[in-house]
Amino acid sequence: MKILFIGWGDNGYKCLKELLNNRFKIVSVIVPKNYDVKGIQQLCNRRNIDLEVYQSSQVLFTKMKLIKPDLMIVASFPKIFPKNIIFYPQFGSINVHAGELPKYRGYHPLNWAIIRDEKQIGVTVHYLDEGMDSGDILLQKTIPLSNYDDINTVKKALVKLGAQLLVQVVKKISKVKKRLKGKKQNENNATYAPKRNKEDGKIIWENNAREIFNLVRALKSPYPNTFAFNRKKERVEFQESYLSNKVGEVLAKVKGYYLISVGDGVILLKTKKKLSIEEILF
């Protein structure tokens, strides 16, 4: 079974590595233009796998007609592919999405799930169709989301889990040598995770403590951090947050942490910027 792999980032790297470790035949790898793909590039060089940078859907379709893949796998890619590409492989095209579909379709599902205070977070392997993350579900699992998690701990866990689920699905396709029957998504339950930009991280101090806590932990580095402005109109960025859910618990006394009044109480935040006591942030 010949596989065309398309992806980038931690998700793309881990999925590609697990496929290769399980001896699946990757005939070509496509990566996005102007993205950091060093890890995938090194992996392809070591395994002598053809690697190309995505140019256009027309160029990709010409490539597919040349290599004739049986299956296309996508693991993080900033494009929605047209119908002729999606349905060209005889076994279909599948995607690894870091979200509990049909919830959180789109660009930044993990960040949005944390911001919206979800109690669990998932990863889904599904068929591609012409919509955004709307194809039939092949395999899905969730993990609990606790107060101790942030975007990095969640991403690390789901990247690993997603690669494991992908291998299970590909093994099944390889065995039956046909498209699998997936579970249709319930459109009534669909939600979306739109692309975020740097300015979305501005803290609204009238929000309650949990909302601010979730925003800060959803936007830790390498994502653009949350921020506010001081009286000098200097930008103040926040890297960490901690929120106690136990009455009477001693929180912390650590250099760089500030206790700030918010809508429903206080929150402990860490910043590299020196603030004055009684200073008002806005």
Which features does this protein show?
Methionyl-tRNA Fmet Formyltransferase, Chain A, domain 2; 282 residues; alpha/beta; 7-stranded mixed β-sheet; 4-stranded antiparallel β-sheet; Rossmann fold; 2 domains; single chain
Q: Topology of this protein?
A:
Blueprint: E1 2-7, H1 9-21, E2 25-31, H2 38-47, E3 51-53, H3 57-67, E4 71-75, H4 83-86, E5 93-97, E6 105-106, H5 109-115, E7 120-127, E8 137-144, H6 151-176, E9 192-193, H7 209-218, E10 226-229, E11 235-242, E12 257-262, E13 265-271
Parallel strand pairs: 1-2, 1-4, 2-3, 4-5, 6-9
Antiparallel strand pairs: 5-7, 7-8, 10-11, 11-13, 12-13
Tell me the name of the CATH class of the largest domain. Alpha Beta
- Strand count: 13
Helix content: 25-40%
Largest sheet: 7 strands, mixed
Mean pLDDT: 92
What Rg do the Cα atoms give?
22 Å
Shape, please? Answer: elongated
Strand order of the largest sheet: 3-2-1-4-5-7-8
CATH architecture assignment of the largest domain: 3-Layer(aba) Sandwich
Count of domains: 2
Structural class: alpha/beta
Please provide the ordered H/E string of secondary-structure elements.
Answer: EHEHEHEHEEHEEHEHEEEE
Strand portion: 25-35%
CATH topology assignment of the largest domain: Rossmann fold
Number of helices: 7
CA-CA gap between termini: 57 Å
